[in-house]
Design a protein that fits this description.
2 copies of one chain form a homodimer. Chain A is of the alpha/beta class. Chain A has 2 domains: 157 residues, Aspartate Aminotransferase, domain 1 (Alpha-Beta Complex), CATH 3.90.1150.10; 234 residues, Aspartate Aminotransferase, domain 2 (3-Layer(aba) Sandwich), CATH 3.40.640.10. Chain A contains 14 helices and 12 strands. In chain A, helix 8 links the parallel strand 5 and strand 6. In chain A, helix 3 packs antiparallel against helix 10, helix 5 runs parallel beside helix 6 and helix 5 crosses helix 9. The radius of gyration of chain A is 21 Å and the shape is globular. At the A-B interface, helix 1, helix 3, helix 5, helix 6 and helix 9 of A face helix 1, helix 3, helix 5, helix 6 and helix 9 of B.
Chain lengths: 412, 412
């Protein structure tokens, strides 16, 4: 039997999906599992997008242009104009989800062995895309104590070597929900210009900013045209994760041309998705207002619920639909698996993503989990009760941060 | 401005799509362009597949399982059973087109620097996938004189090194249309077992075999369970190229597990595509009979038309919907571009794919083009008239094979 490849062996498993077999088993045993592990919202896809699919008229389900149809790119450009992005259809390259957008961007901009600096915790699959493209991730640690704000620019600078080629941010952030402020974006701009780096900005959660906070893209900053690569997706914006439709936006013509060659190799993104994506741009503002109000409410319920649990700490994030919470546990991977395998409360349990997979520094995030607030508030409340009960009896329970503080009196 | 990557610079442009800007310009100038460059059939997608899309009922366009829905994989297994593949749903990993299937298979099975032997000419984008995954292609030359039959196994063996990990075939072949006979498949089996190699079999054109010839898959051969990776796609089978839906089939559990990790990183294939793909399995046999009869007719018209042109030689292939023809020209890249830029006959011209991009040996195929017979016979006839006229006046015309033979008297 031929061996599989080293990268096949060493490729990191998705922390979001790796516990799925345990969840499946729990369900077979009759448990109800609250899925807070994955960013698959229960929010309905806009009716206009669904209608576009149902009313589609075609005889041949054909390839489109590799860069995406002109019609879709033109419509997309109008969506971005509403956000004051000064871009045209020729700056947009349509991709099969943000996943492919990141992969192609890394391939087009970075060589094997080049380095990209990413504030951690970060979206776990960045590890996989970097691994596939031979790029090395240099993590710069952000901290739960200040809600995972952008680390000081000095921390980035310490990591810069002759191999550093890019900074990658996700804004609003997955997994932390942190929304970068204008000052943080300006600081990143100066860094990027000083060292002539690419700035990859994953903006899949752009629509989800709460408490009146303002979203700032590098596209809003002057002087970065050659440096910025925007990564986007319709998955979260329109609750259409299964559409696998995203894009790269860049005004750097060399990057665009190189990216197009990678796009040509896989021929095109989906035809129906692009038709639906075009219709989606006409989604009325009320849809987003309603969705954002729902997410704000869920976040409040979740964050309050978490912080009420003895030993748990969770910051209150400004965007996206995730939080990273610190639990009084020895090992998040063990705990999350234990919740599925060995725990039930009233025949319910909760699936969460261990935060370790969102860090690349070994050991970091060992007592943190990512929770996606993609269920309604009733279910979220029940899930929090479950979590509270689980933490009471989990064999690997340790003192929580607040408890340590109280026990040592170091809050004095 | 930061530089793009070396791989971004060196990534080969698609020979199928790279002349598109010239075709676009020709069309702007009012010329009608016959598109014989790309395997985008004009054949209608089965009604059942279109109805499945139009009648779809969903509220959330959601991710599916990373390996594909159980429902679709179960149905797909029944499709393969009709072809006497002894496989189950758990051997199928659903992908975003055959493109992704090849990329993931290479990543899971081969390391950076490993070698895969491929009979050339081969599907041009294999170059791109190999390039992206750091795999080196070792081409083994097949010849137009015998219709691009499998090269002697001795030619493969000469190329085997400690780095050789796989053989990749495309059957029926893109670009040559050659259908491998049982004896050729058996010879490959012995080779693969002798050197413990993977056998990647790209079977996107399985349904298209002509003149009563029989399709043979490595899945029909005993003793290869751990070696075989089937690459498949619905694109050509159901004239649904824009659906971007394919799969990997393997009974090698280690390969499957490794491939799944790569699949998890990109979350899932399209939801609607899998629903449509499930419906497509119920496509009645008459659909394929009608389509095959149409393609057989087109092939006959095309091959006869080509061989009638002074200096042109084209074998008569047994499958797929491509031919590679030898033309009396100095340089296929120049000629194909010239056809679009500088030629018109009755305001018509033809777009073809220069065969050079389908070889990895420099210089090979310099006087060959790939022609896809994806247009109706009337258009094919008109395209052949165009080509004939073009060859009469093309400034880089040279003596064709038959003319050289006649001129030197070496046919005696």
């Amino acid at each position: 039997m031929p061996n599989i490849s080293e990268r096949g062996r060493e490729m990191p498993a998705s922390p979001i999906r790796k516990l799925t077999p345990f969840a499946d088993k729990a369900k077979l045993e009759g448990k109800k599992v609250y899925h807070l592990n994955i960013g698959q919202p229960d929010i309905e896809t806009p009716q206009g997008m669904i209608s576009a699919v149902k009313n589609i008229d075609f005889k041949v389900w054909a390839y489109t242009a590799s860069e995406g149809t002109l019609s879709y790119r033109t419509k997309l450009a109008s969506y971005y104009k509403k956000y004051n992005y000064n871009i045209e259809p020729e700056h947009i390259l349509v991709t099969t989800g943000a996943s492919e957008a990141i992969m192609i961007s890394m391939m087009a901009c970075l060589n094997d062995g080049d380095e990209v600096i990413i504030p951690e915790p970060f979206y776990a699959n960045y590890n996989a895309f970097a691994y596939c493209s031979g790029v090395n991730i240099k993590p710069v640690l952000s901290h739960i104590d200040n809600g995972f704000a952008l680390p000081p620019i000095g921390d980035f600078e310490k990591l810069i070597t002759s191999k550093t080629r890019a900074i990658l941010i996700c804004n609003p952030n997955n997994p932390t929900g942190y929304l970068y402020a204008i000052e943080e974006m300006e600081a990143l701009k100066q860094l990027v210009l000083k060292y002539d780096l690419y700035l990859f900005s994953d903006e899949a959660y752009r629509e989800f900013c709460y408490d009146g906070r303002v979203f700032v893209s590098p596209m809003h900053l002057d002087g970065l045209d050659e440096n910025v690569i925007i990564i986007d997706s319709v998955s979260k914006r329109y609750s259409a994760c299964g559409a696998r439709l995203g894009c790269i936006i860049t005004k750097n013509k060399k990057v665009y041309s190189a990216a197009l060659k990678f796009a040509q190799a896989r021929l095109s993104a989906g035809m129906i998705e692009q038709i639906a994506g075009e219709a989606a741009v006409d989604t009325p503002d009320e849809y987003f207002e309603k969705v954002n109000s729902e997410y704000t409410h869920r976040r409040d319920v979740l964050v309050q619920g978490l912080n009420k649990i003895n030993g748990v700490f969770c910051p209150n994030p400004g965007g996206a639909f995730y939080v990273v919470a610190q639990l009084p546990i020895d090992d998040a991977d063990k705990f999350c698996q234990w919740m599925l395998e060995s725990f039930e409360y009233d025949n319910h349990t909760v699936m969460m993503a261990p935060a370790t997979g969102f860090y690349s520094t070994p050991g970091a995030g060992y007592n943190e989990v990512r929770i996606a607030y993609v269920l309604n508030t009733d279910d979220l409340k029940k899930a929090m009760i479950c979590l509270d009960e689980a933490l009471k009896i989990y064999p690997g329970r340790v003192l929580g941060t607040k408890e340590v503080v109280a026990a040592t009196g170091s809050n004095s």
